[in-house]
């Protein structure tokens, strides 16, 4: 993944002024004492932390708000600490409806490394306010149960813990909640205290649904040390129906290119609804206010051009997958719709693009009539022959006839041919094996 290049970034507000920028972008949902935090930031750099639990092999776009928020705060001069939860990931934050499946420690350890690698490009680990990467397994692994109950547990009040939404929802369900998941907020609270003592952390950032856990840490530091620390959350990102981005909703777009290709990632943002695209530009991109205002005006005046969506898709794909992958995706998209040669598109880009197309498995040697029917571009052999006779069928941009057949030279990346009927009807003919 590659962070946005400097020429696309908005000028960074410094000190506490960054909070005003965050408010304009819609990035602040809950805060402790915003005025006090503003003053604290004006007095000097604040060390803050973001926690990421490895509950899957990859982060997804739902995490991007926090990753971008972390970058904005660092650019304002503040010091980021990135916590990858090797310990808390073994338990997981309680789900509202059911117990989590507990993963093997070896699996979680692998996820810790993957997520640490995914986070790195969003912040700088060099310079005066270089980011630091920590794993809470380092301090929890040496903490005994009796010490934890005596020194930590006594500072938490059960009546407050029961008020957490995910806990109260589970208590009212038939399944209830295990002590394991109920204790998660204590572990996260301990993280804040540990980082406050060891790293000087005074601020934690997180998603809106994490407010209860963040406050557990704020309260724990206050009870144990008599000091005030801060927390801010950002709103959960949703589509126009209110459905949030995330794996629990079954619509996860992963940051790992092996799990979600650059093509699919680009198309996800390109398909953003007009009513949401400006919100996404503010939340996720590093475009300036002037650039976003101009794109917002284009949404109002010429929504059919989808200029804002294209800018969003380009910015986000470059941020996560890099400039070259983004350029390849755009070249592939243009070639698929007749603006360029498919044979000049990088193989990986065309294979990713065609993976999303409707189509069918075919064999080398199949006639074009058979291929057209198999891919659904004609509902019968008779119709297929007619389309071919009319010159309406092309393969990789070249017109084919009824007396021809699929050959090895017709394949892109040795695996697929793009078959079109006219300009708009498109399918993928995928070769999985040689003819018997």
UniProtKB/TrEMBL annotation:
<dbReference type="InterPro" id="IPR054608">
    <property type="entry name" value="SYY-like_C"/>
</dbReference>
<keyword id="KW-0436">Ligase</keyword>
<comment type="function">
    <text>Catalyzes the attachment of tyrosine to tRNA(Tyr) in a two-step reaction: tyrosine is first activated by ATP to form Tyr-AMP and then transferred to the acceptor end of tRNA(Tyr).</text>
</comment>
<dbReference type="InterPro" id="IPR002305">
    <property type="entry name" value="aa-tRNA-synth_Ic"/>
</dbReference>
<dbReference type="GO" id="GO:0004831">
    <property type="term" value="F:tyrosine-tRNA ligase activity"/>
</dbReference>
<feature type="binding site">
    <location>
        <position position="247"/>
    </location>
    <ligand>
        <name>ATP</name>
    </ligand>
</feature>
<dbReference type="InterPro" id="IPR002942">
    <property type="entry name" value="S4_RNA-bd"/>
</dbReference>
<dbReference type="InterPro" id="IPR024107">
    <property type="entry name" value="Tyr-tRNA-ligase_bac_1"/>
</dbReference>
<keyword id="KW-0030">Aminoacyl-tRNA synthetase</keyword>
<dbReference type="GO" id="GO:0003723">
    <property type="term" value="F:RNA binding"/>
</dbReference>
<feature type="short sequence motif" description="'HIGH' region">
    <location>
        <begin position="54"/>
        <end position="63"/>
    </location>
</feature>
<feature type="binding site">
    <location>
        <position position="184"/>
    </location>
    <ligand>
        <name>L-tyrosine</name>
    </ligand>
</feature>
<dbReference type="GO" id="GO:0005524">
    <property type="term" value="F:ATP binding"/>
</dbReference>
<keyword id="KW-0648">Protein biosynthesis</keyword>
<feature type="domain" description="RNA-binding S4">
    <location>
        <begin position="367"/>
        <end position="427"/>
    </location>
</feature>
<feature type="binding site">
    <location>
        <position position="49"/>
    </location>
    <ligand>
        <name>L-tyrosine</name>
    </ligand>
</feature>
<keyword id="KW-0694">RNA-binding</keyword>
<dbReference type="InterPro" id="IPR002307">
    <property type="entry name" value="Tyr-tRNA-ligase"/>
</dbReference>
<dbReference type="GO" id="GO:0006437">
    <property type="term" value="P:tyrosyl-tRNA aminoacylation"/>
</dbReference>
<dbReference type="InterPro" id="IPR014729">
    <property type="entry name" value="Rossmann-like_a/b/a_fold"/>
</dbReference>
<keyword id="KW-0547">Nucleotide-binding</keyword>
<dbReference type="Pfam" id="PF00579">
    <property type="entry name" value="tRNA-synt_1b"/>
</dbReference>
<keyword id="KW-0067">ATP-binding</keyword>
<dbReference type="InterPro" id="IPR036986">
    <property type="entry name" value="S4_RNA-bd_sf"/>
</dbReference>
<dbReference type="InterPro" id="IPR001412">
    <property type="entry name" value="aa-tRNA-synth_I_CS"/>
</dbReference>
<dbReference type="Pfam" id="PF22421">
    <property type="entry name" value="SYY_C-terminal"/>
</dbReference>
<protein>
    <recommendedName>
        <fullName>Tyrosine--tRNA ligase</fullName>
        <ecNumber>6.1.1.1</ecNumber>
    </recommendedName>
</protein>
<dbReference type="InterPro" id="IPR024088">
    <property type="entry name" value="Tyr-tRNA-ligase_bac-type"/>
</dbReference>
<dbReference type="GO" id="GO:0042803">
    <property type="term" value="F:protein homodimerization activity"/>
</dbReference>
<keyword id="KW-0963">Cytoplasm</keyword>
<feature type="binding site">
    <location>
        <position position="188"/>
    </location>
    <ligand>
        <name>L-tyrosine</name>
    </ligand>
</feature>
<comment type="similarity">
    <text>Belongs to the class-I aminoacyl-tRNA synthetase family. TyrS type 1 subfamily.</text>
</comment>
<comment type="subunit">
    <text>Homodimer.</text>
</comment>
<feature type="short sequence motif" description="'KMSKS' region">
    <location>
        <begin position="244"/>
        <end position="248"/>
    </location>
</feature>
<dbReference type="GO" id="GO:0005829">
    <property type="term" value="C:cytosol"/>
</dbReference>
């Amino acid at each position: 993944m590659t962070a946005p290049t400097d020429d696309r970034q908005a000028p960074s507000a410094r000190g506490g002024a960054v909070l005003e920028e965050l408010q304009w972008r819609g990035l602040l949902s809950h805060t402790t004492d915003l005025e006090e935090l503003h003053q604290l930031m004006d007095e000097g750099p604040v060390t803050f932390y973001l926690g990421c639990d490895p509950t899957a092999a990859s982060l997804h776009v739902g995490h991007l708000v926090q990753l971008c928020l972390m970058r904005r705060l660092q650019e304002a001069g503040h010091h980021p600490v990135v916590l990858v939860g090797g310990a808390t990931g073994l338990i997981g934050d309680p789900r509202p409806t059911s117990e989590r499946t507990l993963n093997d420690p070896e699996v979680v350890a692998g996820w810790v490394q993957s997520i640490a690698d995914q986070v790195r490009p969003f912040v700088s680990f060099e310079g005066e306010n270089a980011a630091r990467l920590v794993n809470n397994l380092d301090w929890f692994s040496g903490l005994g149960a009796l010490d934890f109950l005596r020194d930590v547990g006594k500072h938490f009040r059960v009546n407050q813990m029961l008020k957490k939404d995910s806990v109260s929802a589970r208590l009212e369900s038939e399944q209830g909640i295990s002590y394991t998941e109920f204790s998660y907020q204590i572990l996260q609270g301990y993280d804040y205290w540990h980082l406050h003592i060891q790293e000087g952390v005074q601020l934690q950032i997180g998603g809106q649904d994490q407010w209860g856990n963040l406050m557990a840490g704020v309260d724990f530091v206050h009870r144990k040390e008599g000091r005030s620390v801060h927390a801010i959350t950002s709103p959960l990102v949703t589509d126009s129906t209110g459905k949030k981005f995330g794996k629990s909703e079954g619509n996860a777009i992963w940051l790992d290119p092996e799990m979600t290709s650059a093509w699919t990632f680009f198309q996800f943002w390109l398909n953003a609804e007009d009513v949401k695209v400006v919100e996404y530009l503010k939340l996720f991109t590093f475009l300036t206010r002037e650039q976003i205002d101009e794109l917002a005006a284009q949404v109002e005046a010429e929504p059919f051009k989808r200029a804002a969506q294209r800018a969003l898709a380009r910015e986000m794909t470059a941020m996560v997958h890099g400039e070259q992958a983004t350029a390849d995706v755009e070249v592939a998209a243009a070639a698929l719709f007749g603006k360029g040669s498919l044979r000049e598109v990088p193989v990986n880009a065309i294979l990713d693009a065609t993976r999303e197309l409707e189509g069918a498995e075919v064999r080398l040697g199949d006639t074009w009539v058979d291929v057209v029917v198999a891919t659904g571009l004609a509902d019968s052999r008779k119709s297929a022959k007619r389309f071919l006779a009319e010159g309406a069928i092309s393969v990789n941009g070249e017109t084919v006839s009824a007396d021809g057949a699929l050959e090895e030279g017709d394949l892109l990346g040795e695996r697929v041919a793009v078959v079109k009927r006219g300009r708009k009807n498109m399918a993928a003919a995928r070769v999985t094996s040689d003819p018997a």
